[in-house]
Amino acid sequence: MKIQQLSLFLENKPGHLRAICRTLAEAGINIVTLSLADTEQFGILRLIVRDWEKAKKALEQKDFVVNVTEVVATEVEDRPGGLSEILEMIEETGTNIEYMYAFTRRLNDRAVLVFRFDKPEAVIQLLQARNQNVLGAVDLFQDA
Amino acid sequence: MAGNCVVENRLWQAEEALPRTRLRELQLSRLRAAVARAAGVPFYRDAFRRAGVTPDAIRSLDALRRLPFTCKEDLRRHYPLGFLAVPRERVVRFHGSSGTTGKPTFVAYTRRDIETWADLCARFLVAGGLRPEHTVHVAFGYGLFTGGFGLHYGIERVGAAVVPGAGGDSRRQILLLTDLRADVLVCTPSYALRLAEVLEEESVPRGTLALRYAHFGAEPWTEDMRTRIERRLGILAFNNYGLSEVIGPGVSGECGYRDGMHVQEDHFLVECVDPDTLDPVDPGCPGELVFTTLTKEAFPLIRYRTRDIASLRSEPCPCGRTGVRMSRVTGRTDDMLIVRGVNVFPSQVETALLRVEGTAPHYLIEVRRPGAMDEVTVHVEVSPQTFSDRMSEMQALREQIVREIQSVTGLRMRVELVEPRTLERFSGKAKRVLDHRTAAP
Fold first, then answer.
1. Which of A10, A11, A69 sits opposite B389 (nearest CB)?
2. Are the Cβ atoms of B417 and A44 closer than 8 angstroms?
3. Where in chain A is the domain with CATH 3.30.2130.10?
4. CA B288, B289, B290: angle at the middle one, nearest 5?
């Protein structure tokens, strides 16, 4: 129940982000959601796309260095408290959240969050036991 | 800088003005003794045998051409002390300079070598106006580097007072300069500019410092820099040259006319050769400087190739010193850089990167001097092996590279991770250095 996320290294300079996006566009890849973590000098761009293998190939052909990381996507009720309730559950597993970001679009009137955990299995188990909707690729990309 | 003598012209030792014929006789007898001393060193024993040379076969100074050259690689191959020519008990000092990879090149001194060294430094200090009643502030690092201790002993030999300011902390140096009223400053020229900057930043009124003279070395500098430093600090600045393998500072230095640096020819034979053919260049033309030590006991060197490029002039100098004058060093035959007075080789950076990543990635060393001090940025390409999705790991990678580079070179450099394939590729030897500093003398 994990999603494959692509991450790329990019320098914090004008035009570098656009170059990545143009490559994806030329390959006909639509970005479902993304997050850009920055330092003064460089950033890590994290992308979720529908066909990650095709996207990885297209990017590597243009000499980008691409990592693939497994992340967990879960639905969250789009109301005050939605996020803190999920986080409470995650805390019970004692797992560390490396980073998280939100999806750009909503599914079924719910917000979708993406997490990288150091122990994803433990979290998936617990969330499913609590009837939280952990999304797989099929769910995410139904209209991507 | 030809023109008049800017200080009272005094010799420290009479030998500085030996008539050339007497000098050549002295050099010849000392060369024989130096060859005899060097023959105790395995490298020279073998090289002399191959060349069919013995001390008594040296009947004129032309015989020098039959002696073997010595290169830095030869010294490195005999690490740590393969060139020591005396029993260990006679060594009273060790010093060293950076090697091309991680290990330094060690040099050694007997008591007599230390005395000689002190006199050689005294020569250029006195030529630049130093008097026994003066106080000299030494802002060179004290340690394995020959600059600090070399100048220190030379100053004490003259009878002047030393303030061992050593390296770093410009505000503290200025405090010492102000309160101890030093007349003379010794440091790298770029550090002098840095001090001038700090004085301006702190709005220190002109005349607060008692400085009148300065002696700069350890890195190349231009006439333009001399004018700038002199104006900003209100001093007269003198150039001196040396290298630790030959002895340290004291190989050559300017006199009051400041028109070239007199080589101390009673202690060192100097040649200027074409780095490819190894033939002597025409007089006055630039070439690689090669030194033979005539009096050193612990660590004699025969025809040591410095990889420094300069030219020699033998016209008599009005100061009366008869040692040939060398120009400023105008370049290197290898890829060595001098950054903040420290010798750095690109291969050292490569060694550091190898330690971190297991493979040497593509890198570029960029050197700038935005203000007074040199700044080095090493651009390192990220590779599939080193890229991590975790920000903390990328930060840690960067910091690890900075630490390894500092461990190998002694310098803290800025490290910038760059995207793969953004640094230029080369079909032949990679150009790993981009030096934006202008160094035209």
1. A69
2. no
3. 3-69, 70-140
4. 115
Burial label for B360, CB within 10 Å (0-12, 13-18, 19+), is: middle
For chain B, list residues with pLDDT below 50.
Answer: 1, 440-441
Query: What does CATH list as the number for A3-69?
Result: 3.30.2130.10
**How do beta strands B363-368 and B325-326 pair?**
unpaired
Task: Indicate whether this model's pTM tops 0.95.
Answer: no
Determine the distance from the C-alpha atom of residue B98 to the mean position of all C-alpha atoms in its chain, rounded to a whole number: 11
Tell me what the mean pLDDT of segment A102-107 comes to: 78
The CATH code belonging to domain A70-140 is: 3.30.2130.10
Verify whether the Cβ–Cβ distance A46 to B395 is below 8 Å. no
pLDDT for the residue B159? 98
Amino acid at B385: Q
Return the pLDDT at A119.
87
How far apart are alpha carbons B192 and B179 in whole angstroms?
Answer: 18
Pick the CATH number of B1-334 from 3.30.450.40, 3.40.50.720, 3.60.150.10, 3.40.50.12780: 3.40.50.12780
Peptide bond into B80 cis (omega under 30): yes
Higher pLDDT, A113 or B360: A113
Residue B331's closest CA among B345, B349, B311? B311
Which chain B residues are within 8 Å of A42, Cβ to Cβ? 394, 417
Q: ipTM greater than 0.95, yes or no?
A: no
User: CB pairs below 8 Å between A and B: how many?
Assistant: 43
CATH number at B337-435: 3.30.300.30
Q: Identify the three-state secondary structure at position B155.
A: helix
Q: A65 vs B389: CB contact, 8 Å cut-off?
A: no
**List of chain A residues whose C-beta atoms are within 8 Å of the C-beta of residue B390:** 98
Tokens of B220: 């190349």
Q: Which of B391, B416, B420 lies closest to A65 in CB terms?
A: B420
pLDDT at A133 over 50: yes
Interface touch A65/B391, C-beta < 8 Å: no
- Give the pLDDT score at A137: 80
CA dist A112 to A103, B143, B218, Å? 5, 61, 62
Q: Which residues of A touch B389 (CB under 8 A)?
A: 5, 7, 44, 46, 67, 69, 116
Top residue of B419, B422, B424 to mutate, by most chain A CBs within 10 Å, is B419
If you average pLDDT over every residue of chain A, what do you get?
Answer: 90
Q: Which of B382, B395, B416 sits opposite A9 (nearest CB)?
A: B382
Q: Where in chain B is the domain with CATH 3.40.50.12780?
A: 1-334
Between chains, do B391 and A42 touch, taking CB under 8 Å as contact? no
- Closest in A5, A16, A98 to B390, CB measured: A98
